[in-house]
Write a structure and sequence with these properties.
Elements (H helix, E strand, L loop, with lengths): L1 H18 L11 H5 L3 E9 L5 E5 L5 E5 L4 E10 L31 E13 L2 E13 L3 E10 L4 E13 L4 E12 L19 H7 L3 E3 L4 E3 L5 E3 L2 H23 L3 E15 L3 E13 L9 H4 L5 E11 L4 E12 L2 E12 L3
Antiparallel strand pairs: 1-4, 2-3, 4-5, 5-6, 6-7, 7-8, 8-9, 9-13, 10-11, 11-12, 13-14, 14-15, 15-16, 16-17
């Protein structure tokens, strides 16, 4: 499936470049033209994490243990070519990988034409390591929108590859609507590997599952061993509270990784609105997927929700300067795919004393 993903990405990029104006697929692609005004960046950011925590135990006399959390870091690499909207202030001299341009989630950019973003972030936060990736290529014209996107959000535990082809209807220079098709490649969200192990009372056959996974139990001595033969617990309490959660986690991850990625084709509708002046600006966009094709596969999401469901995403960026001193703002974005949510928001008031 990794090969299929790469093929889909290459084909999508090729189609987007071919749709660029005044070019045909038979002509040589002028990379210098497409990368003009683009910025390549790489950066390392770090800082202190949560402070050390002391834990105490009296099971074998008083003992003290200090739990240390390693420092936080963010290693970022990327290239972006996205025109800034009027409300976006490029205050920093350099890109450092910590920028969060929520307008990147809009369907259309400040200008028509080709724009792209490729960014990879390797992070550690409060001792937890995860990988974030966000890549997209977007071609916008007066009457169509083509886009391919790959998103991996380690913190929200969501990952998918998406392409979309939409017809765009411009109402005026501020408002446009779009309708089209979307194809998403992802793991089979909704699938529960533990479902076959559930008991009638809501519990789970965790001991049988652990035995299947290679763990061993000496019922006479009350000791528990992992598949490598190492002693991992010498009491029921440790077995149930420490070892079994790890067994369930590892089993769930293994079973999900064994499944092929699923392609979900959906109807998509959206809009974009943008108005800007020095005293007032409003940028909003939204997408809704109310219908999804069911190919009858065993792991289609339809099977877990008894039919159709609705996926949606959107964002708003609003700013108002009430007078020379006082201003207020609201910014936020929200996504819900396959009943998985990830979002950000902020709002506030600024008062400048002259």
């Amino acid at each position: 499936m990794h090969l299929l993903k790469k093929i889909l990405i290459i084909l999508s990029v090729f189609l987007v470049f071919c749709m660029a104006p005044k070019k045909s697929c038979s002509q040589e692609i002028n990379l210098k033209k497409y990368f003009k005004f683009a910025t390549f960046y790489g950066a390392v950011n770090g800082g202190t994490s949560i402070s050390d925590i002391e834990t105490f135990s009296v099971s074998q006399g008083l003992t003290t243990t200090t739990v240390k959390t390693p420092y936080d870091y963010n290693i970022a690499f990327g290239v972006r070519k996205i025109a800034r909207f009027g409300y976006e202030n490029r205050a920093n001299t350099f890109y450092d990988g910590t920028e969060d341009s929520w307008s990147d989630g809009a369907n259309v950019g400040k200008i028509s034409g080709l724009e792209f973003l490729f960014e990879l972030d390797k992070k550690r936060q409060e001792g937890i390591e995860y990988l974030d990736q966000h890549h997209f290529v977007r071609q916008v014209d007066d009457w169509y929108i083509l886009k391919f996107e790959y998103l991996q959000d380690g913190f929200a535990d969501i990952e998918y590859f998406e392409t979309s082809q939409r017809y765009r209807k411009k109402i005026n220079n501020r408002l446009s609507y779009n309708i089209g098709a979307s194809q998403r490649l992802s793991e089979p969200y909704g699938y529960d590997p533990l479902e076959e192990w559930y008991l009638a009372n809501g519990g789970i056959h965790y001991t049988y599952l652990a035995l299947q996974e290679g763990y061993n139990i000496n019922v006479y001595e009350g000791t528990y061993y992992n598949p490598d033969g190492d002693l991992v617990a010498n009491s029921v309490e440790v077995w149930e509270e420490v070892i079994i959660p790890n067994v369930l986690r590892d089993y769930t991850e293994k079973k999900r990784n064994e499944l092929d990625r699923k392609i979900q084709q959906s109807l998509v509708l959206g809009f974009d609105y943008y108005y800007y002046s020095k005293k007032l600006w409003l940028h909003s966009w939204a997408n809704i997927m109310p219908w999804h094709y069911d190919d009858g596969g065993e792991f289609m999401y339809h099977n877990y929700v008894d039919g159709q469901w609705t996926d949606y995403s959107g964002g708003i960026i609003f700013g108002l300067k009430l007078n020379r001193s006082l201003g207020t703002f609201i910014e936020g974005k929200y996504n819900k795919y396959w009943n998985r949510e990830w979002y950000d928001f902020k709002c506030g008031i600024n008062y400048i004393i002259f």
